Amino acid sequence: MLESENTDAGAEGTGQGKFALVSIRLPVALTFAALVGGLVAGIAGAAAGAPQAVSDIAALIGGLWLRALQMTIIPLVAALLVLGLVQMILAARVGTVARRMIALMVVIQLAGGAFTSIAMPALLRAFPVPQGASAFLAQTPADVGEVPQVLDFLASLVSPNIVAAAAETAMLPLTLFFVMFAVAITRLPGDQGERLLGFFHALGNAMLLIIGWVLAAAPVGVLALAYGVGVQSGGGAFAALGHYVLTVTAMGTFIFLLAYVVAIAMGRTGGRFASAVLPAQAVALSTQSSLASLPAMLDSAGRLGLKASTAEFVLPLAVVIFRATSAAMNLAVVYYIAALAGVEVSPTVAIAGILIASVISLSAVSLPGSISFVVSIGPIALAMGVPVEPLALLVAVEMLPDLMRTLGNVTMNVAVTSAVDRAAGSDETPKEATAT
């Protein structure tokens, strides 16, 4: 089974730290085959005049699987947000090098999100979504896509009842609450903080087990959903999927190119960076895993003449908590679905989307992309008033944009290491490296 990179610690975080999460994988190849098979069967069924009962049964099966996938989003995001944010806060306490690294990572995430919020709508206007793509919205409620007024939007940032907010999948107040909750945990006495982290660790693992059971049925669910799409859209579904892959990948390309700017401008590597990072990029493309690329990234750092103490501290930590392409590419998926649904994203909602995409990227620590694709993008979509239902089918083709996710993440990890090494004082780096 191929392990997707999307939040590309994937199962990479397992075994790292006291609160490691269980590793779950999606049968990617089989799910992709089910997507293609379902679309072909739907197109053939429509041409042959298959009974409506077949479509109804497929819609029932696909809908049940989709709802089972959605029901884990809120508790899993809550657990992973708390664990991810606490991990980042504790890492920042290690020293100046860690704080510089995390600050640079946050800026990169925000820059990626801002770029996508401007470039993706422009790209979709220049190259509109193909005809027939609206069939991907077959399971979407009719009331999705209402654009809130600015004052209503600001008022929604804080909920007086966090349980009600969870019941209504109100992601803005939930995200804000769990950010504050994670910060509060780091201020508690050691034993109290450990107990709370243990609870969220157990909650996260329980949700991962449930979602693992749901994803085991992904080929069946995707086949059923794809059949309905094929009946409604015909061959246009394949054109829409190809269009989706290319546009989302284009947003990841920005981060990939930005890595060269960071390395040359901040790391002062000059033209050496392109040749030095090639081995790591080759491993990234062949494995689709940042963890598997870590030895090659360390080798690239050595080729650039970076201090071993800096590389051995920054790169492993980056693999666990930093996914440079997440905000840009996750937001690209949301904007694509918004275009499918005809949802207008206001500037206020776009800013909220950028912030939530950057924060949610932390919640994917220790998850394979097959899970984090829904867990990371679902909350962003919900917060922006965009339907989440198409994610159940788009996850089947995530293996293709995932190549750019891994390539961009690995390249940016090396670039950030060069920038941190350039800025770090020689007197503090060995001490901080030892702290790992």
Describe what is shown at a glance.
The protein has 436 residues and is mostly helical. The protein has 20 helices and no strands.
Structure description:
This protein starts with 27 loop residues before the first helix and ends with a helix. Helix 10 packs parallel to helix 19 (401-423). The relative contact order is 0.22. The radius of gyration is 21 Å and the shape is globular. It has one domain (10-435): Proton glutamate symport protein (Orthogonal Bundle), CATH 1.10.3860. It has 20 helices and no strands. It is 72% helix and 0% strand.
Largest sheet features: none
**Total tally of structural domains:** 1
Model regions low in confidence, pLDDT < 50 over at least 5 residues = 1-17, 426-436
Kindly report the average pLDDT value.
81
What is the level-2 CATH architecture name?
Orthogonal Bundle
Percent of residues in helices comes to over 70%
What is the ordering of alpha helices and beta strands? Answer: HHHHHHHHHHHHHHHHHHHH
- Strand tally is 0
Distance between the termini: 32 Å
The CATH class is Mainly Alpha
Number of helices: 20
* Annotated CATH topology: Proton glutamate symport protein
Task: Give a topology summary.
Elements (H helix, E strand, L loop, with lengths): L27 H21 L3 H19 L2 H20 L3 H31 L23 H6 L6 H6 L3 H16 L3 H27 L1 H16 L2 H31 L5 H5 L1 H10 L2 H14 L4 H14 L4 H16 L5 H14 L8 H15 L7 H4 L6 H23 L5 H7 L1
Features:
436 residues, single chain, disordered N terminus, disordered C terminus, mainly alpha, Proton glutamate symport protein
